Amino acid sequence: MPTTFRLSLLTALIGATLLTGCSKSGTDDNIVKIGSASPLTGPQAHLGKDNENGARLAVDEINAAGLTLDGKKVQIDLIAEDDQADPKAATTVAQKLVDEGIVGVIGHLNSGATIPASKIYFDAGIPQISPSATAIAYTASGFNTAYRVMTNDKQQGSALAEYAISQLGAKRIAIVDDRTAYGQGLADEFERAAKAAGADVVAREYTTDKSTDFMAILTSIKSHDPQVVFFAGMDPQAAPMIKQMKQLGVNAQFLGGDGMQTPKFIDLAGADAEGAIASNPGLPLAKMPGGEAFKQKFNARFGEIQNYSPYAYDAVYVMVEAMKRAKSSDPVKYLAELPKTDYQGVTGHIRFDSKGDLTGGAVTLYQVKAGQWQPLQTINSK
Predict the structure, then answer these.
(1) Which stretches make up the Leucine-binding protein domain (predicted)?
(2) In this structure, which of 281, 292, 336, 382 has its CB flanked by the most CB atoms within 10 Å?
(3) Which domains are present in the chain?
């Protein structure tokens, strides 16, 4: 090949590369990448997809309305990743999202995934807003990148204990948790508050977030004759647990947290779900400021709301509003605006304390009646 031809070809290739690079860079300048991390496979996939869909609804609305930052029109790209509700997978997902150039993340769903991932986001300076992680340890880390838009386990555990003792008259309580950061944290707070109110915790048992056979621990619990069995875990375990309680003749009120307060719990437990009581941070959907409008939009596009999608939706808007105030999607710039959040969302008025926790807030108790979760009482957090 003649030297002049080789040089001409090399020049052309370099020019093409530079043009391609400039074109890609120009496109990327107009794209704001936000991550969404939750379990999209496995037994909790229905909850993870619910979170992703809530975030996606908000992103699509913002893009349709048009978003301008410092005079430049930008488009949000939501990048959804599957953390499998697993702490190790969550750190892999977090690093992948950081490497892909996200400027913020909505997630993770589970506290056990959120907590280890939060270190990676903090090290990268990436703001993180969880719609559903309630463990106290998440915001106790001191990471200035960590926020959440729902009440934490201290608030929820106290409300559950108060209800069990003042409304159910429980004096003898058995507790089971799934050993996840969420389950153990919620159970610890419930136990602390129950004991402080004078209840006797007659049994404390443990399982995992993969188990479905609870006959051994329930047989042990039955021998203590509790009035309430409190389970801190998710619906794939709560449903078989209540079914097995009925099979063994454990005559106690089944009580749980937000992990079991889902339509899926009723689907899985069937008739045995009747009478179960569970809490959920926040107001009932029908009483949320934007609850009915959100429900109509979400149902029309994605179907039934499982649990946390309204919070994922609000989390996106809180993040984008901070970008608007900063006039930038640069994490360094808009992170400084997140503590100033004062936003009226679908779920309620969102403001953060110095740790990144939601201030105020409420916890609502529900009971399964005629195959549906019905609100019983809303307790304002202290």
Answers:
(1) 32-371
(2) 281
(3) 27-151+286-351 (3.40.50.2300), 154-281+364-380 (3.40.50.2300)
The tokens of 377 are what?
């009482």
Look at residue 232 and give its three-state secondary structure. Answer: strand
How far apart (Å, rounded) are the C-alpha atoms in residues 213 and 226? Answer: 20
Q: What is the pLDDT of residue 28?
A: 66
What is 343-379 written as a DSSP string? EE-SSSEE-B-TTSPBSS-EEEEEEEETTEEEEEEEE
With beta carbons less than 8 A apart as the criterion, state whether 44 and 109 touch.
yes
Give the H/E segment covering residue 68: strand 67-69
Contact 351, 358 (CB under 8 A): yes
Only one residue has tokens 């809180």, namely: 318
Q: Are 298 and 54 in contact (CB under 8 A)?
A: yes
Beta-carbon contacts of 247 under 8 Å, excluding residues fewer than 6 positions away, are none
pLDDT digits (tens, 9 = 90+) for 175-232: 999 999 999 999 999 999 999 999 999 999 999 999 999 999 999 999 999 999 999 9
CB 202 within 8 A of CB 223: no
Contact 289, 314 (CB under 8 A): no
